[in-house]
Each structure stands twice: as structure tokens, then as C-alpha cells.
């Protein structure tokens, strides 16, 4: 890996393209280096993981709404949408939109945390949609996904967005555009323009993850993927983009990040160096924000030691800056303590999550968030006894560059009636590569089987998994099978109609001849 220093340049400096971050990203994307076997294996795992969480969310209102929008845009050859038959094809940007929402809705797929946050699996829907639409094969898809993961992880390691209240999809737009560039074997110049265009149009604020969190939290990465596809299409037609996007005098760093005097270091693979960043990422065993994963496991572990939960006087979670200020009491969001809060808000309340995990000794993607579950009197009482504090030790471990020291958990101090204290701590979730039960292919398959039960027929599950096992050898026709079909009764319905189906009449584009 080579570290590249990135800063603002005045227009009069006329920064050369070869010295711009977007060009260096494009060079990585256009490098035809082979993908290594362990990376191929993990790409297959994450394709399974995405399908698993999409199955669990396929009937939820935001997913049904996104799918309804996509259905108004049929196209040939097009791409597939989760839940629909593989023969039913949608314009690729809208397929990516629908699938991106399905993957993200339950906050249940892979994650990478460093200087900023990310869900790198959000790269899969747009890159897969373009691969299906353009008639590419499994080997091409693998190359594109290896790039998407690489660029997103490298940006997340080098550039912090959240301290400036910029949503993390600003790293996803460029990574997805770069991955599509690799997939299509586009010239460096074309990828360079697409990366910049994608950055420019996917920069949004973190209000989507603050206060009363709405369904936009699931739509945001789908929007970034959709914009990446449109950016690549536009520049393939010879159009340019705002440049230099990161380093410009009125660009991203100067006005949205740390300002004209700031300098960032972004490490990228050198020419001929394999793209291995996906191996730094990790998935979720539980449907909750990643900082909750380890603490859910710790709650399950502490529960037998505590015994009578009504004897608890207080619970203090000593944890990292991120956990305290984003999903803890440091956020100062009253909604995080409100039994009537939305699922999206409860997902970002470690106080609620720890209380339910303690009571139930388990976590469920649907039952644990049910309104009647959140409103249970004993749960509310326990929930309101829980607080968080930032602990410098856990903040330092959270930001450590040493994977063996990096931690996403904390120390929990439970004070019981009478003054006795029970403490325990956990560094990483059980499913983390360094955890008690690391996820490998069997665990990804088990997650898919579990979440697909009652939604995807067993034979359909078997068909999908068999294709993933043969991913590098898949032909272009077979790539269309990397989806699943669910029964109409399993899909749910959109709450109401919109512009694309005004007065109930679909307004999609004509279907082109095959």
C-alpha cells in the first residue's frame, strides 16, 4: 500500500490529474490485478449475507416502496430485484435502488469502522446490477466487487466524515463508481471522472442518522449506488465532472471537511498489488448498529450472573467516543429513551438494545423492535437505568490500526440494590474474525437459511447457494440467478402510490426488444 497525501490546492496551482486522489483511485480500479482465492471466498460470503438480510426485509414498507418505484422502470436486458422472478428485469439503476434498500433496511449486513463508518456490502447492489444488465460473468463481478470494497475501506481509513456531520455515503458513491469501472474495464480517464461525479452528488448530512431517524437511513446507500451508475453512464458518453473533487479550492476538503489547511493520508494499493480490503471487514450476527454487536453478546453473557433484573439500580457502559456520542446517552437524543421511537431510532439506542438483550438473552431482527416490546413497562424501567460514558481506553482501541487491539465493545458496570457490583467487558463481537465464534461460509449460509425461512422456498435457497459456490465460473446467463424469488404474499405492498404509478397506472419506460 502507498500512502497518498491529499489537501486543498488553489485553482492557480493547476493540480495535475496524476496527483489527484480521484485519478489515483481510478488507477487502482483500472489495474487488472488478479483477485486472490480468500478474497473470492469472502465476496461469495457477502453476496450470501446481502441476500439473507434482503429476505428478512423484503416485505417491510420501505423495501416495498423502493421495489414499487423500480417496477415502474422495466428494461431489457436490465437487472434483477430481490423477491421478483429473475426473468423480470428492471433498469439497472432502479434495480440497484430497490436492492440497496432491501439490503440496508434492517442494518444487518457487513461493516467496516476506522476513521469513519461504512457498510461495504452496499457496493454489491449497484455493481451486480450493472454486471447483470451488461451481460458480464462471475469473474468480472468478482473483480468489480474487489475494487468497490477496496476503495471504500481505503477511504474510510483515511478520511473522517462524521466529525463534520457528513454521512458516510460520500465514500460509497466513489467506491461503487470505481467498482463499476473495474467491472466494465473502463479507461482510467473515464473512471476518474465517474469517481468525482459520484462524490459530488452523494455528499449529504448525518441528520439522516440523528434525532428521529427515518427510513432514509436505508435509502441513503441505495441512492449512492444509483447515483454511481448514473455517473458512470454519463461520463462514458464523454461528459466530465467537477474537478479536482477532493482537492479543489471550493471542493470537498476545503468546505465540507477540515478546511484548506487540512491534509489527509489515504493508502491505496500499488500497481500489481492485490485488492484485499474486504478481508478487513466483518458482518453482523444481530440486526443492530455495529457498536451494539459486542454489547448484545456481553448482555447475554452477564444475564445469568445478574439474576433478578429488578434488583438493578444502574448500568453504566464504559465505551468508545463513537458508541457514547452516536448510540449512547452522549448523543443527547431524547428519542433514544422513548418507547414510541421508530425502529430506526431504537436501532441506534444502545440503552434500549442492552436492556432487551439482558431481559431476553437473545436478539431478533423483528421481535426485539416490535412496538409492544419497546413499550413493556419493565423494559422501559430497566432501559432508563442505563447510561454510557466515554472511556479513553476504549476510544483508543476503537481507533487503533492494529487489528488485534482494535475494539468495538466496552466495559459494563451493573450496580445492584444493596450496593453490590457486577462488571464484565468485551472487545469484539462473537461473530468478529477475532471473536468467540467467527463467521465463515457455514455461518453465512446458516444466516441465509434462518432469515429466508418462510420467505424463500428451500429449493430456491439451494439454487441460489449453489450459484454462489460456483461464482468465479458463472457465465453471463447464470449471473442473472444471483437473486431470489419469493411468493407474492411474502413481498408486502407499498403504502401508497407515487408519481411513477399516478392514479394506479404504471408509468415505466417501454420495454426494449431483447
Describe what this molecule looks like in 3D:
The strands form three sheets. Strands 7-6-8-9 form a four-stranded mixed beta sheet. A two-stranded antiparallel sheet has the order 1-5. It has a two-stranded antiparallel sheet with strand order 3-4. It is an alpha+beta fold. It has 20 helices and nine strands. Helix content is 44%, strand content 9%.
Secondary-structure topology with pairs:
Elements: E1 2-7, H1 21-30, H2 37-57, H3 61-71, E2 74-79, H4 92-104, E3 112-113, E4 117-118, H5 124-133, H6 138-158, H7 169-183, H8 188-201, H9 216-236, H10 252-256, E5 263-268, H11 290-306, E6 312-319, H12 321-327, H13 343-346, H14 350-360, H15 371-374, H16 377-383, E7 386-390, H17 392-399, E8 410-416, E9 421-426, H18 441-452, H19 458-469, H20 476-479
Parallel strand pairs: 6-7
Antiparallel strand pairs: 1-5, 3-4, 6-8, 8-9
Task: Kindly list the characteristics that best describe this protein.
514 residues, alpha+beta, 2-methylcitrate dehydratase PrpD, 60s Ribosomal Protein L30, Chain: A, four-stranded mixed sheet, two-stranded antiparallel ribbon, 20 helices, 9% strand
Structural shape? globular
Strand order of the largest sheet: 7-6-8-9
Strand content: 5-15%
Determine and state the CATH class of the largest domain. Answer: Mainly Alpha
- The secondary-structure class comes to alpha+beta
- What is the succession of H and E elements? EHHHEHEEHHHHHHEHEHHHHHEHEEHHH
The N- and C-terminal alpha carbons lie at a distance of 44 Å
Question: Quick one: CATH superfamily of the largest domain?
Answer: 2-methylcitrate dehydratase PrpD
Tally the helices: what do you get?
Answer: 20
CATH architectural designation of the largest domain:
Orthogonal Bundle
Mean pLDDT: 94
Return the domain count.
2
Report the strand count.
9
Fraction in helix: 40-55%
Instruction: Report the biggest beta sheet as strand number plus sense, adding barrel if it closes.
Output: 4 strands, mixed
| Cα Rg | 23 Å
